[in-house]
Design goal:
Order of helices and strands of chain B: EEEEEEEEEEE
Number of strands of chain A: 11
Number of helices of chain B: 0
Number of helices of chain A: 0
Order of helices and strands of chain A: EEEEEEEEEEE
Low-confidence stretches of chain A: none
Radius of gyration of chain B: 13 Å
Mean pLDDT of chain A: 96
Helix content of chain A: under 10%
Distance between the termini of chain B: 35 Å
Shape of chain B: globular
Oligomer: heterodimer
Largest sheet of chain A: 7 strands, mixed
Structural class of chain A: mainly beta
Shape of chain A: globular
Distance between the termini of chain A: 40 Å
Strand content of chain A: over 45%
Helix content of chain B: under 10%
């Protein structure tokens, strides 16, 4: 069955770089699209970016050039990297599959909570 | 970006009650509207896609409707497991954006 699991640090220092890995199972990254969504504590959901099944990427302009998404198809992993972290980057980070046919996020990971500390 | 506004932000309700959550887009989104449920442990589950299509495994007490800029999620008879956060999301225009959420809580 389709599963996604995010792994990453609990704590990152101010201005440093965040690296999170989404490890998937039950499908191939060459057939499913994987996106990243984050949720600050007590707040709503914010779309960050996409790794498309063909290998292309898209990013929310809100993150300007701070965000990078890549993948290793042989390891079934998608990577999120974001630099110049600020305290308002404290959030739970989710990876999710996106189906073009329905235009929605149909499988979600449990998320990883990251705190940016000064 | 298209702004999504949900109402109410909090909805106290009783078991067995029928409830409706609204979602308004800042411009027309041509039915490209999805609904998600987030449980207190943080897990997110898709409920409805493209306005009214039930995700596989979602109980039939959930339904969605709407058009243009105004959409709604209805739960016909609340069960204990339905008390959670609900989010709408538009997929009509890049980037996809979410509503601020509605907390469905036990009255």
């Amino acid at each position: 069955q389709v599963q996604l699991k995010e792994t990453g640090p609990d704590l990152v220092q101010l201005t440093q770089t965040l690296s999170i890995t989404c490890t998937v199972s039950g499908f191939s990254l060459t057939t499913y699209n994987v996106h990243w969504v984050r949720q600050p504590p007590g707040k709503g959901l914010e779309w960050m970016g996409a790794m498309w099944n063909g290998g292309g990427t898209d990013y929310n302009s809100a993150f300007k050039s701070r965000l990078s998404i890549s993948r290793d198809t042989s390891k079934s992993q998608v990577f999120l990297k974001m630099n110049s972290l600020q305290t308002d980057d404290t959030a739970k980070y989710f990876c999710a599959t996106y189906t073009v046919a329905g235009g929605h996020f149909d499988y979600w990971g449990q998320g990883v909570m990251v705190t940016v500390s000064s | 970006d298209i702004q999504m506004t949900q109402s109410p932000s909090s909805l106290p309700a009783s078991l067995g009650e029928r409830v409706t959550i609204s979602c308004r887009a800042s411009q027309g989104i041509s039915n490209n509207l999805n609904w998600y449920q987030q449980k207190p442990d943080g897990t997110i589950k898709p409920l409805i896609y493209y306005t009214s299509n039930l995700q596989s495994g979602v109980p039939s007490r959930f339904s969605g409707s709407g058009s243009g800029t105004d959409y709604s999620l209805t739960i016909s008879s609340l069960e204990p497991e339905d008390f959670a956060m609900y989010y709408c999301q538009q997929d009509a225009s890049f980037p996809p954006t979410f509503g601020g959420g509605t907390k469905l809580e036990l009255k």
